[in-house]
Design a protein that fits this description.
The structure is a homodimer of 344-residue chains. Helix content of chain A is 32%, strand content 25%. By secondary structure, chain A is of the alpha+beta class. Chain A folds into two domains: 7-151, PurM-like, N-terminal domain (60s Ribosomal Protein L30, Chain: A), CATH 3.30.1330; 163-335, Phosphoribosyl-aminoimidazole Synthetase, Chain A, domain 2 (Alpha-Beta Complex), CATH 3.90.650. In chain A, the strands form three sheets. In chain A, strands 8-10-7-11-9-12-13 form a seven-stranded mixed beta sheet, sandwiched between helices. The first copy, chain A, has a four-stranded mixed beta sheet with strand order 3-6-4-5. A two-stranded antiparallel sheet of chain A has the order 1-2. Chain A is globular. At the A-B interface, helix 1, strand 2, strand 3, strand 4 and strand 5 of A face helix 1, strand 2, strand 3, strand 4 and strand 5 of B.
Chain lengths: 344, 344
């Protein structure tokens, strides 16, 4: 740990200046960023606000999650919520609590990841709070975005006969987590082993990437706009497909059927699930942290949906009385459970 | 602890619903509150955003700070930042991390305090995040407010000859903290004593109130508007007068002189400082958490300032080259130090 800079050497104000000076502003709507009592934002459209808190030991494990990736993820999970409203993220505030275990270089790495995410998504860092913590690392990010009033997509607009669509594939982030946790147990249990056995990760790089470097699907929102499709309801999949289907159905007062055979599952996900004796469909339904978009569209948009890249039609909306169901490969209809990804 | 409800009994979604259902919306600008991926806010004016994070053991001690007051304070310290821009707070998001030491009734108490603050200031709770923590309580609040573009007051507008004004009085919250910490040490050091010696608090209720129930000075912002005074610069005093003067002077590229004899100090503050052998002027200059407003006004506003209630003129802005100074009782000029209220 030599040559590292204790945080106390800089003090709060200098630390904030040091960490945030290299975030050039990208949005004309950012009138004032870091450095006053508030950030000031120009809002010609409606303003979207979302917030997420990540705690060390609960949401991330620094034994396998590099700080740069953690910073990246902490930002994009918020962008994902803005995209899920069919909006565009524009600003974030970043509050961090850090114990004395961390030094300035650690925080630089974390902010590198934040900058990386902000650059990819055209977002400005406009404020935050930097405080001491007694135990570990706390990150709380609020993201501000915008969308024209008539383009905002809520969870509540799904109607019977609407098509249910999902981007990307499901369960990969969950299997990435299972893999990392399994290998970490090996590291902890084998004497004199302090490194991961990299051979266990070969051919499974995609799963690690999905767990460690979450993507927010800006591209899907852009494709939908280009194709002139306005979803009737949308949500991002942070707690697993089942849980998000329940949110849409509850708020839209509808039921739904999704088809087991239509669930997009990557080959690496399927192979590792089999190896670990996990039911891959359960992983796809209940695994968290995919950050894909789940949305419903009027059936008249069917032709427009087909050419979209990486978008899959997995089912349809039913009347509320029909419930929330999975149609299995063998034709059975199984009621889904809203297991979610229990945080509390 | 009998009859208390473990948080796990409700689960995340039901807990959020339980805690937030009793927050009626007050602002027409709140289009969508809790219950979607984002809150949606209508913004005809410019949007102000501020955020604060409070960690148990660093920012608050539940041995003397009741959860209801903590909730109240966590909200109003954010409102104070919005008022410091001459804005009006309208929405908050509340993220909390809670360890298993806390139960549902504890969180209800915390949210009672949040509701109390929101009612007093006309603010809507529009979202947040509720997560488990391994250690203690974490509260991260983001507040959204607004102001017309030409009424926003930054830290950067002070000009030489401007008057420096402060609301309320200084150092009381700091002395309240000293008192609570002293009495807590007694409780910890005396065998078989588990209660505070209430007689120590008699005649010092104001200090406790200033420490435990911070006020955000909505009334000052309203008075300024009524008197048709637009401050040239403004900041709220969270880290102590000295530190905030440095912020205004640095960002406005000016110097200043404040007069020792003009610093508003309450009698209880002065008496306890003397008893504890503390220099009361140092307490007024460097004690944190007053949440009063510090602002500068054009000297032509002098006549308009005089009738304002609880506003004190404490000095004037100088050229940058003259530095940041305290004019003492005996006519000496002492350069001020930006001690601040070190969090990191």
């Amino acid at each position: 740990m030599q040559d590292k800079t204790p945080i106390s050497k800089l003090g709060e104000f200098k630390l904030i200046e040091h960490l945030t000076h290299d975030f050039p502003q990208k949005n004309a709507s950012t009138i004032k960023g870091v450095g006053d009592d508030c950030a000031v934002i120009d809002s010609p459209e409606q303003t979207l606000v979302t917030t997420d808190m990540l705690l060390e030991g609960i949401h991330f494990n620094l034994e396998y999650c590099p700080l740069k990736y953690l910073g990246y993820k902490a930002a994009v999970v918020n962008f994902s919520d803005i995209y899920a409203m069919n909006g565009k993220p524009a600003q974030i505030t970043v509050s961090i609590g850090v114990s004395s275990r961390f030094n300035v270089e650690d925080l630089e790495e974390l902010y590198q990841g934040l900058r990386w995410a902000c650059e990819e998504h055209g977002v400005d860092l406009v404020g935050g709070d930097t405080v001491a913590s007694l135990n570990g690392l706390v990150i709380s990010i609020t993201c501000i975005g915008s969308a024209p009033k008539d383009k905002i997509v809520y969870r509540s607009g799904a109607k019977p006969t609407d098509l249910i669509c999902v981007s990307g594939n499901l369960g990969a982030a969950y299997m990435g987590l299972q893999l990392l946790q399994r290998e970490l147990e090996v590291v902890h249990s084998v004497p004199n082993q302090s490194q991961f056995d990299q051979s266990q990760f070969e051919g499974r790089e995609y799963l690690l990437q999905r767990q460690l470097k979450a993507q927010a699907r800006k591209d899907i929102v852009e494709q939908l706009a280009k194709a002139d499709i306005l979803p009737t309801a949308m949500i991002d999949i942070s707690d697993g497909l089942s849980s998000e289907l329940f949110h849409i159905c509850k708020q839209s007062k509808v039921g739904c059927t999704v088809y087991e055979g239509k669930l997009p599952i990557d080959e690496q996900t399927a192979r590792l699930a089999e190896e670990m004796n996990l039911n891959v469909v359960m992983c796809a339904l209940n695994g968290g942290e995919d950050y894909e978009l789940l949305f419903t569209c009027n059936i008249n948009d069917y032709e427009k949906l087909l050419p979209l890249d990486d978008v899959y039609i997995i089912g349809h909306i039913d009347k509320e009385s029909e419930g929330i169901n999975l149609a299995s490969h063998d034709g059975e209809t199984i009621p889904l459970q809203a297991q979610g990804w229990k945080n509390v």
